[in-house]
Structure formats: C-alpha cells, structure tokens
Automatic annotation (TrEMBL):
<feature type="domain" description="MYND-type">
    <location>
        <begin position="398"/>
        <end position="441"/>
    </location>
</feature>
<dbReference type="Pfam" id="PF01753">
    <property type="entry name" value="zf-MYND"/>
</dbReference>
<keyword id="KW-0862">Zinc</keyword>
<dbReference type="GO" id="GO:0008270">
    <property type="term" value="F:zinc ion binding"/>
</dbReference>
<keyword id="KW-0479">Metal-binding</keyword>
<dbReference type="InterPro" id="IPR002893">
    <property type="entry name" value="Znf_MYND"/>
</dbReference>
<keyword id="KW-0863">Zinc-finger</keyword>
<protein>
    <recommendedName>
        <fullName>MYND-type domain-containing protein</fullName>
    </recommendedName>
</protein>
Length: 580
C-alpha cells in the first residue's frame, strides 16, 4: 500500500532523494544490524522512493513527456538482498528488536535530516500499520510482537517493492536485457530461489501482512520455473489459504460488532487481504503452466475453492461496510469454478459442496466443454498455442525454461512454435526416435499457414485477464475462443489430413507427460474444511446472502466421458440389447 503523490519532482526533490538513498543503503549494508531504527529508515526510504509511490501525471493537455525519478538499481539490489537474506529465527528476532530500538543521534545531525526522517517515518509508519491492523490477528501477545516500531518499515519495503516489480517484463528479465530494474531474474533472487521463498515464509511468520504473498507472487511471475519447485516444497499456497481462512473467521466476528471503528477496520483489512490473495491466485492460475498450477495448489485445492466462496458471501454481506472487493467478485467466482473443475471435485467420492450462485452461474456457461475438445484437431490447436506461449524447453523430459536458460533459450527458426534451452536439447529433439522434430516441424508450419497465420493463432494469449485504463478486468478468453473458431474453420476448408492433427496431439501429450508434475485426473482428493457447510449456511441465512447452489456433478470432462465409455465397453452386456 505505497502512498501515491501527484506532481513532478523538482531539482531539490532529486537531490534530497539521492541523499536519502545514500543514507538508507549505507545504513542497511549490515542486514543483521542496521545503523538506524526502523522509523528513521522508513522516513529515508519514503524520501528516496517518491517516484515509485507517485501517481503518473495524466494531464492530457501536456505535450511534453513527464519527467520522473528513475528507479535506482543500487537501491533495489540492496533492498531485495536485505529482504531475501537467509536468517535464523534468532537473527530475525534480533533484527526486529534492533529496528524497534532507537539510538539515532538526532542532536548531532546539523543538517536536520535525521529529525526529518523520524518525523516523516512516524507518519508513514502509522499509515502503513493501518493496512491490516495486524495486532488483532494473533493471540494476546500480538500487541507486543506486531508493533509499529517492529513491523511498519518491513511492510513498507514489501509494499513499494511490489509496485516496482509489478510491471517487470518477463522476457526481458529472463534474457538479462531489461532496461530497468530488475535487469535479470537473478536480481530478484540474489541468494537463490530456495532461500528467497524460505525468507518470505519466515517474514510472514514474524510480520503477518499478506503483502508478502503479493510480492512473492510477483517475483514468481518473473522467475517462473526457477521459483516453482520452492513454492511447492514450502507449501506457500497452503499458507496464504490458511491465513485467508483466519481472515474469514475474524471478519465474521468483527462485522457483527457494535463498535463502528472495529467494523471499519474489518472491512479495510478484508479489502487489502483479498487484493493480495487475488494477485497470488492470478499468477498461479493464469500466468503459470497447467502442470505447475496443479503442483502448487495440490493439497489445499479444496480449501482454496471453499475460501473463495466464503469471500464471495462476505463481500456482499449487508453487515460488511462498503469496500472495493465488490469489483473482484467475478474474479473470485472464476477462480472458485476453475479450481473445482480443474481438480475434478465433481467426481465421487467427494461430497457435494455448496457454492455461491455466481460460481454456479459461471459453471453452467463454461462446463462441460464440448466433446470435440478431445478431438485431434482441437488438441493440436491447443498444443500449438500452449507451446508458443509457455517459454519452456519442449525437448522431452527437460525441466529448463526461458528463466533458467536466459539468452541460450531460442525458438525454432522454422516453425516458430517450439523452444529449446540450448543446442543440445535442440539436436536431441530433432532426432528423437518417436516424434523427431524434423517430422513435426513441417506439419506445424503447414498448420499455422493453413490456419490463418501467427496473428490469428496467438490472439488473446497474453494472459486470460486484461486490465484496461480504468482498472476494470475483461476476460480475454472470448478473444481466444473467437480466434480458435476461425482457425478450425480454416483447417476444415483446407481439407488437412487428420493424421497431421493426430501427430501433433500425440507429440504434445508425450512432451507434457515428461515434464514431471502430473495433471489432476480425479484419482486424488484432499478434504477441505470440516465446517465449510456450516459457515456457508451461516453467511446465507436470514437474508445475509443468496441461497447456495450446487454444481452439476453429472457434468464431465470429455476425457472422463471417454474413460467411462471404455470401461463400459468391456462389460458383457455392452453389445446386447437390454430388456426392460
């Protein structure tokens, strides 16, 4: 929640920012023992990050480009090193004690900078701590552990850091050629992905603000395959889902309070927490490949679906003070529906689970998909689009990606669809015995040409959700579906051999299977919250919310229908007429 100011920086602003940046970076060079207290550091950090916190000048009358302070690579290199440094719990506690203890020699500062930093730092710290009112999130000892002096500076670092990396170019950073910080993916994980994720989980235990998960998601968006194994190992998704369930319980209690201040705090906390959760889920659900999405959510998928429904009910509860979460209701509903069907929660022996009507309405429009999606033609189109946008090595069994290979990562110059992490994998794939690329490549080129060209094939593939200038979200899925319809019609008109589609389908399936993370197939089941039905009943009772619905459990993925048909065909009665 970085504060945003308007207006252009003056020369004095620039000088003060440079001075504050030098002061700040020198003070935290020893990341275990900063030279100044947290309040002082926060004031200096505020002064040297005014550009990152500023609202862009949108005055349409101005024909001149608006000058801005450039992001200091040195500053952010030191900040991320400070945040991701491996620490023991004892070292972490020692750092927070140091930040909360002021020994700054203000009287010796002739220029008055320290006094100004303290004054500004105190005001900014109070504002930052009003984000989640974290002193209410734990036990009775929380007021001592989650104080302004201990936590505000850390929360502010994560808030502004998230602003800085939110617009980072994934491809430029992976190739180490970005024009702004981070220059490369290693800038974001200076001690490696494992230490980064471990540090984020540790920070959340000591400073439980969900902006940490927000920042983790944005780093994952840029670093992708480098970070995914650590996200899985440390069960990051489990942690944010459990923290959201705690939010639900706390909010359900607080919005019933007669204390207006308490209900206002609850609404504000709810809004910011849901915003951070959705950033995390959007990256996992929409930015990462399907197999990574499955692996990261596996084990907490049912709880994630249930939490989204709880949030849908709470956001529209008449007892909830107004907030901006209402603008995100469709995204919450889409996420709940996606998780439910992706993990086959409609299949026995899973119990029937009530959902918010928005989820049921969306599901009735989107599921089941037409049986044709399993046909070789539709499967071939899906693999062409996926392999073009995934930025992962398509050599069988290779775990590398654009992020791990960097400049060595290249796309096939002939078909422009598949990519390789280097010449070794390219040579291996070209001569692969079962599906050599020298056989697949000309088929891909022909399908692309006959289908309508690359512009049509890759329409709407840059993320499922597009954000317009007003911040409103529009589903780009429809653009993709329209393009797919045109491509399929073009292929039909061109009378392409069905064997070409089958080749691409079988080759794509083999590449996906070799990547390590299995997709959900209905054979796994992780129970959710035992009191889920009770919570939904409470939130929908006596006019508090709409009557819950149930998703159609008879609806099936085409693959499930085909599997059931295969099982039936081996039964002795299959070829016999059944007498009634």
């Amino acid at each position: 929640m970085a504060r945003r100011k308007t207006g252009n920086p003056t020369h004095k602003d620039t000088r003060d920012a440079a001075k504050a940046s030098a002061f700040f970076t020198s003070s935290i060079l020893d990341p275990h023992n900063p030279q100044h207290c947290g309040v002082c550091l926060q004031g200096a950090f505020l002064e040297c990050t005014t550009a990152e916190r500023a609202t862009p000048n949108t005055d349409k009358r101005s024909k001149q480009p608006v000058p801005t302070m450039t992001v200091s690579a040195q500053l952010w290199t030191i900040v991320i090193a400070f945040l991701s440094l491996p620490r023991t719990n004892k070292q972490m506690e020692g750092l927070l004690v140091r930040l909360s203890t002021c020994s700054c020699r203000i009287s010796d500062d002739k220029a008055g900078d320290l006094m100004r930093y303290h004054a500004e730092g105190n005001k900014e710290a109070a504002r930052v701590m009003s984000r989640l009112h974290m002193e209410e999130l734990g036990d009775s000892d929380s007021k001592n552990r989650f104080t302004l002096q201990r936590c505000a500076f850390i929360v502010d670092l994560f808030c502004v850091f998230s602003v800085v990396i939110s617009g980072s170019s994934v491809r430029s950073a992976a190739k180490g050629s970005s024009q702004s910080w981070p220059i490369s993916v290693t800038d974001l994980i200076p001690y490696g992905a494992e230490n980064f994720v471990q540090a984020m989980m540790q920070w959340y235990r000591f400073v439980p603000d969900t902006i940490i998960f927000h920042a983790t998601a944005l780093v994952s968006r840029v670093c992708r395959s480098l970070v995914v194994p650590s996200l899985i190992q440390h069960q990051v998704s489990h942690a944010i889902i459990e923290s959201t369930r705690q939010l639900v319980d706390l909010t359900m209690t607080n919005i019933l309070s007669s204390d207006e201040k308490r209900t206002t705090y609850a609404s504000h906390r709810f809004e910011l927490h849901v915003t951070d959760l959705l950033i995390f889920l959007k990256v996992i659900m929409q930015e990462l490949p399907q197999d990574c999405k499955a692996a990261i959510l596996r084990g907490c998928e049912t709880k994630a679906m249930q939490v989204c429904n709880m949030l849908l009910y709470l956001s529209s509860d008449p007892k909830m003070p107004s907030n901006r979460v209402s603008a995100e209701l469709d995204v919450l509903a889409m996420t709940a529906q996606d998780i439910f069907r992706f993990f086959h929660m409609h299949m026995p022996p899973r119990p029937s689970m009530p959902v918010h009507p928005r989820v049921q309405q969306l599901d009735s429009l989107a599921f089941p998909p037409p049986a044709s999606v399993r046909a070789p033609k539709e499967s071939a189109l899906s693999y062409i689009q996926d392999f073009r946008t995934e930025a992962r090595c398509t050599a069988q069994g290779c775990p590398n990606s654009l992020q791990s290979a960097g400049r060595e990562f290249q796309r096939c110059g002939r078909c422009g669809i598949v990519s390789y992490c280097g010449r070794e994998c390219q040579a291996k794939a070209w001569k692969n015995e079962q599906y050599p690329h020298k056989r697949v490549c000309p088929v891909l080129r022909n399908l692309m040409e006959m289908g309508g060209g690359s512009a049509l094939f890759f329409a709407g593939l840059h993320g499922r959700v597009v954000v317009d200038v007003k911040g409103e979200e529009k589903v780009a899925l429809f653009l993709r579906m329209e393009a797919q319809f045109k491509i399929l019609n073009n292929w039909t008109a061109a009378n392409i051999n069905e064997g070409d589609f089958l080749l691409i389908k079988e080759w794509g399936e083999l590449v996906n299977i070799s990547r390590g993370h299995p997709l959900p197939n209905g054979t796994e089941w992780t129970p959710g919250y035992s009191d889920y039905d009770e919570v939904i009943a409470q939130l929908s009772a006596q006019g508090r919310g709409p009557k819950p619905k149930y998703l159609n459990r008879l609806a099936r993925w085409p693959s499930e229908v085909a599997k059931e048909e295969r099982l039936l065909k081996v039964q002795p009665f299959w070829d016999h007429e059944i007498e009634c």
